[in-house]
Amino acid sequence: MKIPEKELEYCTTCPKLCRFACPVANAEYRESTTPWGKVSMLYYLTKEYAPHTSENYDLMYHCTTCLACREFCEHKISVPDLLIMGRNMAYDKSRHHRGLDRTLKNIKKYGSVFGEDLRERLSSEFDPIYFSRSIKVLLFVGCVYTRHQFDTIKKVIFILERLGIDYAGIYNREQFCCGLPLYSFGFLSEFSEYAEMVKKNLSGIKKIIALCPSCTYTLKSIYPQFDNAIRAEVLTFSEFILPFIKNGLRDLKKICEHYAYHDPCYMSRYLNQTEEPRELLKSTGGILSELLWNRKNSICCGAGGMHKATNPDTTRDIAARRLEEFKASGAKKLVTSCPTCLKTFKDTYPYLPVGDIIEVVYEFLRQK
Questions:
Q1: Which carries the bigger pLDDT value, residue 133 or residue 18?
Q2: 178 domain-assigned
Q3: Helices 357-365 and 150-162, interaxial angle, to 10°?
Q4: What is the domain count for the chain?
Q5: Residue 254 — very low, low, confident or very high, per pLDDT cuts 50/70/90?
Q6: Can you give the pLDDT at residue 293?
Q7: Are residues 104 and 235 in the same domain?
Q8: Which of 199, 189, 186 is nearest to 228 (CA)?
Q9: Does residue 122 sit in the same domain as residue 203?
């Protein structure tokens, strides 16, 4: 992919209007990791004004791909897209993070970043009917749910059955991951090949419910950029479930819990879904308090764009800032729609009550 020179020049000569929006720069207190600093370095590298050292390319990885900078950009430039191209340059010149080679190897061998075949766990827990090729609606459960929050997948199945949706299957093919880690790390050629295989696996499917919003966006919007558009309709969990909850089951007792909702970056800024999860929480009887930074101005959890793999300390600092907002909100529980956000928050402050929106719907529907 060719790096758009005009966008590089705009960012490099910009008076840093998006500076305050970058969670990485705010956590690291470094001018070089502001959107301006990172794109300026990429500009210097493309112009041969800066040496192609690992240290210079390291700046490309100080980004959570949260897209918050674009919300305050007069030209609506996607800095994450530019930096991913910069990571691709780093990979081409063997200046990338060496630890990322393992990620590439794992996805090629196991279809997952975690270095294990996650399909085996699904196959051992669910009836073979869920993996039938004749099923037209497919649950794309994703790597993080399967590895770290497996019970949540079981709760999704319960929710679907409780709502009378008995026609959904579970994606469980060799290419298990959506491939976003490959894209995020700048392995663009490998991502394109991988996306083509996933596309073939999804042939004939009419509707996909991707539990993780980053998977939703990848299948829906990144695949077409690599000429691998999927014909199926791709939906988030909230988007799919909300009509069923709003239009039925009025006899159930409302939960009346006090929540604060954390908008995941892919859910809010990439997919433009800020109201669906809030409506879903309110439909269960939930009382909502807003965090200071919410909706499209939401602060990233710190782990997006595989940032936690390259900068774990900064990820922890970003997550801690977000969790301090929750503590000041007065809400009893923080709820989110992203398994990566959830895991990051729990890893940072294990004692805080943090949960998945799927769990809220499950508790609402499990009433007799």
A1: 18
A2: yes
A3: 40
A4: 3
A5: confident
A6: 96
A7: yes
A8: 199
A9: yes
